[in-house]
From TrEMBL:
Species for this entry: Microthyrium microscopicum
This protein's name: PLC-like phosphodiesterase
MF terms (GO), sorted A to Z: phosphoric diester hydrolase activity
Lineage of source species: Eukaryota, Fungi, Dikarya, Ascomycota, Pezizomycotina
PANTHER family the UniProt entry points to: PLC-LIKE PHOSPHODIESTERASE, PTHR13593
GO terms, biological process: lipid metabolic process
Length: 475
C-alpha cells in the first residue's frame, strides 16, 4: 500500500517532559531514556479514511506531564510523498520555542525518493532542555567565587553554531533589491558560487532570480534562530567573517557595512551581531562569549574591515552594556583565570584568524553519514592541540560538496528539503554521544575546545556542558 516514512529523533533533558510523534493509526512517546535513538513511523494509505483520500497528518506534541507545551504538524500525501500543508513547510519557520522553563528546538526535512544516497524518509527531530540551565551554563558549572573559577579560560569547552550568523538571509535578496537587477546579480553570483554558475548555463537568469532564496536556503543557511536565541540555547563561540556587500547589492536600500559573508552571500550585519552579544552578556554577568574573526573564502570584491574598524565595532557594542561594566579582550584572555576575566569585565573575547586544530577536511565531510566524521574525531589527539589556540570538533556534514547531491539540491530546491537538514538528526545521534564519551580521553591539552554544529539545539549544548563538568573537575 502507498506510504511515506518518517524517521523521528528526540533529546530531552527536562523532568516530566516527553515528545509524542503520531501518524494515522499509531504513535510513539519518547522520553529522556530514548535520547540519541530514532523511531520509524509510516503515513500509510490504509490508515487514512476516505476512498480517494491519501493525505495523513504527521504530528509531534511536546508534553510537560499531561500539559501540552507545543505541537507542530505536516499533512503528507502517502501516494506521492508531497507535503500538502502544515506548520513545518519551511525551515525558516521552524524556530526554537522559548518558554519560562524550556528551550524546544525542532526540525523537519521533506525527503524525496532517495536520490544519490539521500534518505527517502522524512526526518523530524525535537530537543527539549532547561532554559535556565542553558542560559547561564557557565555560571552554573564555574560559579563565581568557586575553586573552578581559578582555572584558565582555555579550560572551557564551548558550543558553536556553524556559520551562526547565517541564520537568515540579509534583505539584499528582497524583491526591492533584486528588482530590475536580475541579469546583473546572477552574472556576478555565477562567478563566485559554482551551483549558481552551473544553473545559469541551463536556466534563464530571471528564473534563477525567483529561485534564488530557495537555492541559498538549501546551500548556505546553517541556522534557523537569531543570535539572541542561539545564546540562550548555550552558544558561546562564534566564527564571524565580516566584509562589506558585493557592489552589485549596494543601493539606496542598503548602506555599506560589514555583514557575515558565506563566500559572498550576506547573513547578519556585524554591528547587529555584536549588539546582541553585548546585551546578552550585560544581562548575564558571569557568562562569556568568544568571537573568532576569520576571512575564509571571502571574495575579493567584498571589502574587509580594517583592524581599527573592528576595534571600533567592538567598542560601540560594549558601550550599549550599562549593567555590568562589560569590556572586550584579546587572545591573551585564554591564559588568564576565569575569575580574573570576570572581575575585570573582559567577558567578550575577540581573536583574529587564530590557529585551529580542526576535524574538518573537504573529503571527510563530503558525506551523508557519520562514519567519516567520527573517523576524523578518532584521528585527533593531545599532541595535535599543542601548537594551536583552539580545537574545533565539527558535527555537521557538507553534503552539498557531493556533486550529485549539489545538482539535485539545485534542481529541486524548496524551503524544506535542504540537504543540510537531511543529515542533521542522524549525524547528531552518532557524533554527539561519541564526543561526550571520548573527547576527554583523546584531547587533554589546556586549549579551548569547541563543538560546532548546524542548526544548534539543546542536545549539542548538553554534551558541551557535560564536557565542561569533566574538564573543570581536573586539577
Amino acid at each position: 500500500m502507498p506510504s511515506k516514512g518518517i524517521e523521528t529523533y528526540s533529546f530531552i533533558k527536562l523532568p516530566n517532559y516527553s515528545v509524542r510523534f503520531s501518524v494515522p493509526g499509531g504513535n510513539v512517546v519518547r522520553t529522556e531514556q530514548d535520547n540519541f535513538t530514532s523511531t520509524h513511523l509510516e503515513v500509510e494509505s490504509k490508515d487514512i479514511s476516505g476512498l480517494a483520500n491519501f493525505t495523513g497528518r504527521f504530528e509531534f506534541v511536546v508534553l510537560n506531564g499531561e500539559s501540552q507545551v507545543t505541537t507542530q504538524y505536516v499533512d503528507i500525501d502517502s501516494f506521492t510523498g508531497k507535503l500538502e500543508g502544515g506548520t513545518m513547510l519551511a525551515s525558516e519557520d521552524q524556530k526554537t520555542i522559548l518558554t519560562d522553563d524550556a528551550i524546544i528546538s525542532y526540525g523537519f526535512y521533506g525527503a524525496g525518493h532517495g536520490e544519490f544516497g539521500l534518505t527517502n524518509m522524512n526526518q523530524c527531530y525535537v530537543t527539549a532542555v532547561s532554559r535556565t540551565a542553558h542560559r547561564t551554563w557557565m555560571t552554573n558549572i564555574v560559579p563565581p567565587g568557586g575553586e573552578a573559577e581559578q582555572k584558565p579560560f582555555s579550560r572551557f569547552a564551548l558550543a558553536s553554531p556553524h556559520d551562526g550568523p547565517m541564520s537568515g538571509l540579509a534583505t539584499v535578496f528582497s524583491e526591492e533589491v533584486l528588482k530590475d537587477k536580475d541579469e546583473a546579480i546572477i552574472a556576478v553570483l555565477s562567478e563566485h558560487i559554482p551551483a549558481i554558475g552551473w544553473l545559469a548555463e541551463h536556466v534563464s537568469h530571471s528564473m534563477i532570480t525567483k529561485l534564488l532564496p530557495n537555492l541559498i536556503y538549501g546551500l548556505a543557511i546553517t541556522q534557523k534562530d537569531p543570535i539572541s536565541v542561539l545564546l540562550e540555547t548555550g552558544a558561546r563561540y562564534f566564527e564571524f567573517r565580516p566584509a562589506h556587500l558585493l557592489p552589485i547589492f549596494e543601493n539606496e536600500h542598503k548602506k555599506s557595512r560589514p555583514y557575515f559573508q558565506h563566500a559572498c552571500i550576506p547573513g547578519v550585519a556585524f554591528e547587529d551581531f555584536l549588539t546582541d552579544i553585548a546585551v546578552f552578556l550585560d544581562n548575564n554577568p558571569a557568562e562569556h562569549v568568544v568571537v573568532h574573526i576569520r576571512w575564509d573564502n571571502i571574495v575579493a570584491d567584498c571589502r574587509k574591515p580594517t583592524t581599527e574598524e573592528l576595534d571600533h565595532a567592538f567598542d560601540v557594542a560594549i558601550s550599549s552594556a550599562t549593567k555590568s561594566g562589560l569590556k572586550w579582550g584579546k587572545h591573551e584572555c585564554f591564559k588568564e583565570s576565569v575569575a580574573t576575566l570576570r572581575a575585570d569585565g573582559r567577558r567578550l573575547i575577540r581573536i583574529i584568524e587564530a590557529d585551529k586544530y580542526d576535524s574538518w577536511t573537504a573529503q571527510a565531510y563530503a558525506t551523508i553519514r557519520a562514519d567519516s566524521i567520527i573517523k576524523q574525531f578518532e584521528g585527533m589527539n593531545t599532541a595535535g592541540q599543542e601548537a594551536t589556540d583552539v580545537t574545533i570538533l565539527q558535527c555537521q556534514a557538507t553534503s552539498q560538496s557531493i556533486k550529485e547531491v549539489l545538482v539535485h539540491s539545485v534542481l529541486t530546491a524548496n524551503r524544506v528539503n535542504s540537504c543540510l537538514t537531511s543529515t542533521k538528526a542522524d549525524l547528531d545521534r552518532h557524533t554527539l554521544p561519541w564526543l561526550r564519551d571520548n573527547a576527554m580521553d583523546r584531547l587533554k591539552a589546556e586549549r579551548l575546545l569547541v563543538v560546532m554544529n548546524d542548526f544548534l539545539e539543546g542536545a549539542t549544548t548538553e554534551v558541551v556542558m557535560d564536557l565542561n563538568k569533566q574538564r573543570f573537575a581536573l586539577p
